[in-house]
Amino acid sequence: MNTSTALHTDRYELTMIDAAFARGTATEHCLFEVFARRLPGARRYGVVAGTGRLLELIRDFRFGESELQWLRDNNVVGTETLDWLADYRFRGNIWGYQEGEVYFPNSPILTVEASFAEGVILETLALSVLNYDSAVANAATRMVTAAIGRPLSEMGSRRANEEAAVAAARAAYIAGFGATSNLEAGRRWGIPTMGTAAHAFTLLHASEEEAFQAQIDKLGTKTTLLVDTYDVHQGVETAIRVAGPELGAIRLDSGDLPTLVTEVRAQLDSLGATGTKITVTNDLDEHAIATLAASPVDSYGVGTSVVTGSGSPAASMVYKLVARRGEDGSWIPLAKNSEGKASIGGKKTPMRRLSASGRANQERIYIGDTAPEAEASERALNVPLIVDGVIEERYLGAAGTALAREHRATAVSELPAGAFRLGRGDAAIPTVFIGN
Amino acid sequence: MNTSTALHTDRYELTMIDAAFARGTATEHCLFEVFARRLPGARRYGVVAGTGRLLELIRDFRFGESELQWLRDNNVVGTETLDWLADYRFRGNIWGYQEGEVYFPNSPILTVEASFAEGVILETLALSVLNYDSAVANAATRMVTAAIGRPLSEMGSRRANEEAAVAAARAAYIAGFGATSNLEAGRRWGIPTMGTAAHAFTLLHASEEEAFQAQIDKLGTKTTLLVDTYDVHQGVETAIRVAGPELGAIRLDSGDLPTLVTEVRAQLDSLGATGTKITVTNDLDEHAIATLAASPVDSYGVGTSVVTGSGSPAASMVYKLVARRGEDGSWIPLAKNSEGKASIGGKKTPMRRLSASGRANQERIYIGDTAPEAEASERALNVPLIVDGVIEERYLGAAGTALAREHRATAVSELPAGAFRLGRGDAAIPTVFIGN
Predict the structure, then answer these.
(1) The pLDDT of residue B3
(2) In which pathway does it act (chains A, B) (predicted)?
């Protein structure tokens, strides 16, 4: 398997570079910007996720002999471009919203300053990472709200591409989930992993009782027993009989949960298992979780809906050329007029305006070459991510993932109450462009 | 980067194995089955995709020192299980629907025969691959139908996780797309790649005319020019002025396509560019493509909707333990009763019944230890994929991908007309279990 990420790229990025080299325009100094024109699903805010992962992938974005040979064999680009690719590593600057930051329509989430060729070549990879990871984080953050403080675990690996699953576990964790079922996500990003047994384990054994006994023998009485393979109430009875009232938890993976959870709680209490927790895992999304707010659920396991963005599987971010350096050193704004896809050119400096009580009330995007200082009521949103080709190490790996999770908690705590409504509607705060 | 796929696994697969080893049940001879209870999106049929990819990932499913150390450090399983994992490679049998085959609710797409431990450990990976790849193929095959023979290209890499994007390109190709924008998919799976230029290329240059000239200088007049950066009709005029009436194609990526395409066709014809083709790429899905059936479109580029399964981003396949070998050597059917998730136990042999004219009219699933011979009116659906741990090579790599694409064309050609309706409804043919 190849470890270079360089061919995770749309062919047209390379053919554009090829033509631009021939024309002498490939080395123009440019600004590219990642933003979303809208929040898919008419949500109230988004959560930026994927940035740390993207930085690592940019580090590995190199054209080795295998990549060059394939491009040569397939006549994708000419010799001059092949030579340039052989020497490619990103040497420009990237700044943007810190991972875990909340965002709104037109928030300039990532800005890339580099030559045209050096910047445009990262478009596909940057969007793949940010669109998927942020789609998951956008869904996950709503589930965290709906869970009103109860812990959530991500267990949707089987409903996502096997590598997407690892990214999804990370994005959900950044958005406030507490654990994942995915072992690779544990290894790669330091995320706590969880899980005990599936229906297959019960079916394998001669009886539910034998299966429970086998699990308890190995994992102890603090484990979680899955009680709905045959009959839930009989399963609960067997579970407590085998494990005793010290059983850690039971898991429900089917049925009409609001009713069932209440019945099972009463049954557990009547059996003296007042400390045994109830975790539920049956096709949950933010709405199903909200419906269970008044039920005695202790924790949630979420699968399909979180890894597929709960109806919005891509965050609709785009990567646009927004400025080109003029001869006098100033940025010349660039924007297209395409119907429904117009963009706003120029260099931008985003700020979040906060009320005296620290509540966000406006996304302010200053347009102009000179970045203004943040006013007292503003929080500056850009952080440097890559400076002259050097990646900011603190955003990488498990430490970077943990930092993003912390930052998301802080950023979300600034949001007005309206941001947490699950219904469709406008962004929680308006985005305002402040021109030069 | 680690190349082992072994930790693309839910933690509970390993804890189940750990408990089963302690109980002495891990070595029970078992049958696991992959199937979907329903076709998400109320579609009429599905297309199996991912099988060839899964076989390669199973080949790489080995626990090296890095994986074992992480499991040890995190106390996931005990010593006996670690020793067993160190020696793990799949030594059992896998058979199933040939990749590219169409499927219906409860079609047993994949069957795994192995010890409990050896089979259950593949659950997460198998479902990740089959659920995502088939979700893409399920959407793509409908787009192919809607395109009434016009070529389709997949260009959604930026709207999917970077590795999912490669898998999506492959699944769309199997389902009948002709090319992809994704270079890695070209390298890894031999899929034709396509693409010329984006809006950024036009914006980079002093004028649209200069951009077009630069592209033509490098890529020739048979290239595709993107004409909607500023004003479409002016863009078309400029394109033909610069390229001449021999221009290969123009691309439209915005606007109200049915109207615009007709106008642009007339404009091209009036400029003498009667051979210049029109390709459209603006947020297409199967319904938008169908709407363009009467418009003079020559080809389609599809992004977001194909890589996200057009509303159904996971195929809802499950991996269930369906039988355990009894002491007399017969299969003991196993099934759970969980509400809404009941399964049907036993070994199964699937056949597709065809009319005298070769039209599919029933999915017949024979339950029983002895696989029946196909009747004259039946086509047997299972093929061996792994025999005693040895993978069938012909399903791997670019050759396997091409074979799957051919098989999909054949399988789809057997379907009744009702299968091609885009509206929601029942499966095109009923699935019938024939018991023993």
Answers:
(1) 77
(2) Cofactor biosynthesis; NAD(+) biosynthesis; nicotinate D-ribonucleotide from nicotinate: step 1/1
Residues of chain A with CATH 3.20.140.10: 11-136+312-434
The superfamily in CATH containing domain B11-136+317-434 is nicotinate phosphoribosyltransferase (3.20.140.10)
Contact B162 A157 (CB under 8 A): no
The complex's ipTM works out to 0.97
pLDDT per residue over B232-288, tens digit each?
Answer: 999 999 999 999 999 999 999 999 999 999 999 999 999 999 999 999 998 999 999
Domain with CATH 3.20.20.70 in chain B: 148-311
User: What tens digit of pLDDT does each residue of A161-171 get?
Assistant: 999 999 999 99
Predicted confidence (pLDDT) per residue in B40-98, tens digit: 999 999 999 999 999 999 999 999 999 999 999 999 999 999 999 999 999 999 999 99
Of the candidates A116, A203, A217, which has its C-beta nearest B336's C-beta? A203
Q: What is the mean pLDDT of chain A?
A: 96
- What's the whole-number mean pLDDT along residues B96-102? 98
pLDDT tens per residue, range A390-424: 999 999 999 999 999 999 999 999 999 999 999 99
Inter-chain contact A9–B184, Cβ cutoff 8 Å?
yes
DSSP secondary structure letters along A30-85: EEEEEEESS-GGG-S-EE---HHHHHHHHHT----HHHHHHHHHTT-S-HHHHHHH
Q: Chain B residues with CB inside 8 Å of A288's CB? A: none
Phi and psi angles of residue B375, each rounded to the nearest 5 degrees, phi first: -75, 170
CB contact under 8 A, A160 and B128: yes
Is B256 in the A-facing interface, judged by CB distances under 8 Å?
Answer: yes
- Mean pLDDT confidence for B291-303: 97
Chain B contact present for A398, CB below 8 A:
no
φ and ψ at residue A106, rounded to 5 degrees:
75, 0
Looking at CATH, the fold of the domain delimited by A11-136+312-434 is given as: nicotinate phosphoribosyltransferase (3.20.140)
B28 vs A: CB within 8 A: yes
The packing angle between helices B208-219 and B232-243, to 10°, is 40
Chain B residues with beta carbon closer than 8 angstroms to that of A235: none
Of B15, B229, B256, the CB nearest to A195: B15
Q: Which fold has domain B148-311?
A: TIM Barrel (3.20.20)
The size of chain A, in residues, is: 436
CATH 3.20.20.70 in chain A: give the residue spans: 162-307
**Do residues B352 and B374 touch, judged by C-beta distance below 8 A?**
no
Listed residue (B230, B228, B237, B303) closest to B276, CA to CA: B237
| Closest chain A residue to the Cα of B179, Cα to Cα | A11
Describe the crossing of helices B257-270 and B232-243 by its angle, rounded to 10 degrees: 30
Every domain of chain B with CATH number 3.20.140.10 lies at 11-136+317-434
Contact check, Cβ <8 Å, A229/B336 = yes
Please state which architecture CATH assigns to domain A162-307. Alpha-Beta Barrel (3.20)
The SS3 of residue B77 is: coil
